[in-house]
Write a structure and sequence with these properties.
Helix content: 55-70%
Order of helices and strands: HHHHHEEH
Low-confidence stretches: none
Oligomer: single chain
Mean pLDDT: 90
Strand content: under 5%
Radius of gyration: 17 Å
Shape: flat
C-alpha cells in the first residue's frame, strides 16, 4: 500500500507503523492478500483468453480450486504455520474462517466467468 501511504497514515489506525512505504507500479487493494492474488490471476486469465483458448479454460488453469486451497491450508497448519492475524496455528485466513476465503474465491471465479463473451 506504499502507493497510497499518505492515505493509509491518515485513515488507518496505526497506519504510520504498519503502512508499507514501498510503492508498487500498480496497486491491487485487498483486505486479504490471497484475495488480491486471486483477482490478479483471474485478470491474467481473462487477458490470456482474449488471444488463446477459452476464458473457462484459463480461469481453471490460473485460479486454485477450492480443494487445492483447502489442501494448501491443511499443509500449512500441519507445518506449524500461524494465521497472520490471530497468530494461532489454525485453519483460518487472516483471522477469518476458511469458508470466508473460499466464498471470495467463488465470487472472483464467478465474476471472471461473467465477463466471457
Amino acid at each position: 500500500m506504499g502507493k497510497v501511504i499518505d492515505a493509509i497514515k491518515a485513515n488507518i489506525p496505526r497506519g504510520e507503523e504498519i503502512g508499507c512505504v514501498v510503492a508498487a507500479d500498480h496497486l491491487i487493494a485487498a483486505s486479504v492478500s490471497n484475495w488480491g492474488g486471486y483477482a490478479l490471476a483471474a485478470a491474467a486469465a481473462a487477458a490470456k483468453s482474449a488471444s488463446v483458448g477459452s476464458q473457462q479454460e484459463w480461469i481453471e488453469r490460473c485460479l486454485p480450486s477450492e480443494e487445492e486451497e483447502i489442501n494448501l491450508l491443511d499443509r500449512c497448519v500441519a507445518a506449524g504455520c500461524r494465521d497472520g492475524v490471530s497468530g494461532k496455528v489454525e485453519a483460518t485466513v487472516d483471522g477469518m474462517p476458511l469458508e470466508t476465503s473460499l466464498q471470495c474465491l467463488r465470487d472472483i471465479r464467478k465474476a471472471a466467468l461473467a465477463t466471457e463473451e
